[in-house]
Amino acid sequence: MERKMEENAARDVETGSEAGGEDALVGNVNKLMVSPPGSTGVPRKGHLVFDACFESGNLGRVDYISEFEFDLFIRPDTCNPRFRVWFNFTVENVRETQRVIFNIVNFSKTKSLYRDGMSPVVKSTSRPKCDSSLSLAASQLPRPDQQLAARDSHSSSHFITGPTEFKGLSETKQRSLLTPLTPAHGRVAQPGRQRLPAKNVYYYRCPDHRRNYVMSFAFCFDREDDVYQFAYCYPYTYSRLQHYLASLERRNLPYLQREQLG
C-alpha cells in the first residue's frame, strides 16, 4: 500500500497535478494591479495591471518577484484539473522601454513545442494590423548579477540566477537574455498578432515550483498607452466558431447540415 501511494505521488508531481496551491485557482484575474511590496498611494506607470476576464482568457494568479520579473499561474482545464496549458491575458499601465520576464510556472505538459521553436503570440491595441515594431525596443535586460542583488529577499527567484544556482537553465540561454531584444517575427495567422522571437522563450523544469514545467519569456514594452495581449498561440474563441458556422448555414449548401449533439 505504501509503495502504491509513493508511486501515485510521484506520478502527480510528474504531471503537475498535486492538490492544493495554484490548483485551487477559481477565477481569472480582473484588472489586477501588481505593485512592489510596500507600495502605497496612487499606482505609478510600470505597476503592471493584468486582466484575463474576457472570452478565452486564462490567468489565475500573478506573483511579484522583482520589478522586472513576475510568476504567472494559469487555471486548469474545466473538465480536467490535471491539465494546465492554455494562457491568454492582457497587460497595461506599462512604462515605455520597461523590460520584463514572465514565468508561466505551472504548466502540466512534460513535452512542449516551445522546446522546438514555438513561441507565444502578442498583439497591442494601437496596432490592429501586423507591425514589425511590435514588442520590442532594442534594449538590454539587466545583468544576472544585478538581478540577484535586487532580489536577495525573494526565495522563490529562479530565473537567470547562474548555472550553479539553477541547473535547469543552460548558460547559453542565460547569455542570450543579455543580447538586445529583437522584433517579433514570423507569419501572421491573425491580424495584429505576432510570435515572440524564439530566442527569448525558454521551457524548463523548475525545482522551485514542485518540479512543474515553466515557460519564461522576455519582453520590452514600447508604448505606454497600449494594452498588450499575450497568448499560448492564436486564440480561436467559441464566438468566432459560432460566427463561422452561421456564415456556412446562410449559404444553404446542399451538403451541409448542422445538428445539436447531446
UniProtKB/TrEMBL annotation:
Keyword terms of this UniProt record: Carboxypeptidase, Hydrolase, Protease
InterPro entries in the record: Cytosolic_carboxypeptidase (IPR050821), Pepdidase_M14_N (IPR040626)
Segments of this protein annotated with the region Disordered: 1-22
Keyword flag Protease: yes
Residue ranges constituting the Cytosolic carboxypeptidase N-terminal domain according to the UniProt record: 51-123
Co-factor requirement: Zn(2+)
Annotated GO MF terms: carboxypeptidase activity
Biased composition (Basic and acidic residues): 1-14
Record-linked PANTHER family: CYTOSOLIC CARBOXYPEPTIDASE (PTHR12756), CYTOSOLIC CARBOXYPEPTIDASE 6 (PTHR12756:SF9)
Protein name (Swiss-Prot/TrEMBL): AGBL carboxypeptidase 4
The organism of origin for this protein: Amphiprion ocellaris
Lineage: Eukaryota, Metazoa, Chordata, Craniata, Vertebrata
